[in-house]
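PROTEIN DESIGN WORKSHEET
SECTION A - STRUCTURE
LENGTH: 472
TOKENS:
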């Protein structure tokens, strides 16, 4: 039924008056709250509206949540090149590595850090193999090796920020790789390499600015591997055997490789490794220094039968970083867990700002008392399975540091597509003693696919994961 003109006019006026009343009330409340708590009213209203209309609370962010938002490692790329020589049970090597970290702050600001590192290594190891050839019809065998390597490295770092940070860092990466290539010739090419490298560097080498960060690292690797296989047909002859080179005793050793032209050839492998690493960085620009302790375990496995079979790689890392300011006072502690499984990397990092002497004493007592965590080594080991994300109140009887982490800890959980390629070139013979030379190239990268951070304590007494939009 159509309303009379007068009633329609009254209805329209009433709606306008009602809307105006709401607007005036909102304005008055805004003025009132801006006086009581400047700068917070708009954020609180925005959060309340989000809670009212959003399908998922993880999309809503309060000002208390934002106060606990951490930095995000949005991208990490790593390139390394190295060579080694093995004699008897000993090996020596040299490597060159390049790292690029892209970090995004809570305010969306991007910072890119480039590290260039030179390393030398020495190690001991041995390997044994056994094989049987049955009338050159089939071959069966197994091989095992164990190695321990100690590596030390030193390098420099450069930081880029601003709107062109990524482009500037990429251009610099090309320059520093060229410079390190020149250095490699000078350092490993003997007298001619030194003379030629210095001449080229003087006239055509890139201009490298002074670094702002110095880095030193020490690393212990222990690895073990086991391979076994069954091959059909005689193994293929090496291509280099011919008129200018005759077969020697090494070529005649039985093995399980079989012929590449005959199937089925079956093989399986498993490798286990453990790494302990310490990294010291000195930031000349800010005066901050940091010490990182890292423990990593990895297993990789695979098998082939006619076609490639199951392949897998799993890695667990626990890391702890203590940062001091220019006055030597601890300013933060970070606890990181990294799990890499078949191309996916998940990193959980909790950073605790340290602002008082009492908090510094609490941190030291927690880490150094072996009854709490087993000492720093025990803490690193536990981080490989306990990410320390402070989602729940620590409860009665908890250590004061656990309460600090729950109250002040800034935690992120980031999932990456992880891509790593390794290539090794060379040859060696293992019969209890080893003889050989190898050159290796490794490239890896992490690109964010999902990111969250822990918000502030909610009404239920827990801290919930929030979407980390700036990181994606």
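SECTION B - SEQUENCE
RESIDUE ASSIGNMENT:
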């Amino acid at each position: 039924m159509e309303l009379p003109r007068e009633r329609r006019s009254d209805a329209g006026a009433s709606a306008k008056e009602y809307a105006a009343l709401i607007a005036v009330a909102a304005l008055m409340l805004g003025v009132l709250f801006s006086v009581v708590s400047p700068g917070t009213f708009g954020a609180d209203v925005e959060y309340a509206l989000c809670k009212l209309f959003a399908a998922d609370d993880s999309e809503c962010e309060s000002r208390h949540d934002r106060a606990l938002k951490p930095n995000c490692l949005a991208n990490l790329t790593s390139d390394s090149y190295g060579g080694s020589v093995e004699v008897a049970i000993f090996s020596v090597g040299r490597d060159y590595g390049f790292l690029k970290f892209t970090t995004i702050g809570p305010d969306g600001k991007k910072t890119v850090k480039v590290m260039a590192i030179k390393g030398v290594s020495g190690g001991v190891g041995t390997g044994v193999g056994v094989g049987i050839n049955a009338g050159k019809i089939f071959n069966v065998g197994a091989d095992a090796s164990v190695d321990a390597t100690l590596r030390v490295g030193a390098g420099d770092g450069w930081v880029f920020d601003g709107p062109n940070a990524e482009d500037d860092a990429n251009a610099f990466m090309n320059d520093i790789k060229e410079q390190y290539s020149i250095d490699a010739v000078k350092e490993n090419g003997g007298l001619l390499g030194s003379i030629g490298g210095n001449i080229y560097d003087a006239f055509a080498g890139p201009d490298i600015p002074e670094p702002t960060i110095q880095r030193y690292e020490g690393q212990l690797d222990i690895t073990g591997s086991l391979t076994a296989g069954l091959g059909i047909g005689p193994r293929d002859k090496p291509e280099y055997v011919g008129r200018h080179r005759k077969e020697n005793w090494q070529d005649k050793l039985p093995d399980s490789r079989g012929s590449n032209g005959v199937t089925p050839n079956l093989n399986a492998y498993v490798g286990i490794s453990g790494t302990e690493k310490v990294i010291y960085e000195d930031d000349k620009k800010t005066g901050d220094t940091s010490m990182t302790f890292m423990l990593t375990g990895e297993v990789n496995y695979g098998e082939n039968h006619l076609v490639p079979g199951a392949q897998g790689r799993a890695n667990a890392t626990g890391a702890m970083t203590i940062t001091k300011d220019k006055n030597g006072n601890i300013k933060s502690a970070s606890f990181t867990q990294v799990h890499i499984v078949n191309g996916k990397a998940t990193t959980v990092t909790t950073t605790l700002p340290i602002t008082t002497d009492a908090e510094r004493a609490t941190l030291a007592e927690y880490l150094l008392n072996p009854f709490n965590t087993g000492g720093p080594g025990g803490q690193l080991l536990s981080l490989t399975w306990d990410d320390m994300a402070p989602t729940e109140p620590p409860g009665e009887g908890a250590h004061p540091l656990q309460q600090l982490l729950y109250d002040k800890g800034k935690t992120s959980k980031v999932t990456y597509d992880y891509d790593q390629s390794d290539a090794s070139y060379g040859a060696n013979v293992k019969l209890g003693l080893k003889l050989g030379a190898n050159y290796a190239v490794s490239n890896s990268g992490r690109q964010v696919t999902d990111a969250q951070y822990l918000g502030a304590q909610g009404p239920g007494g827990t801290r919930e994961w929030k979407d980390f939009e700036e990181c994606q």
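SECTION C - NOTES
The mean pLDDT is 78.
The two ends are 54 Å apart (CA to CA).
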